[in-house]
Amino acid sequence: MRKFIVTVNGNSYEVEVEEVGTSVPVAPVAPVAPVAPAAPQAAAQAPKAEAAVQSAKPAKAGEKDATAPMPGTIVDIKVSAGQSVKKGDVLVILEAMKMENEIVAKADGTVKGVHVSKGATVNSGDLLVSIS
Question: pTM of the entire structure?
Answer without folding.
Answer: 0.54
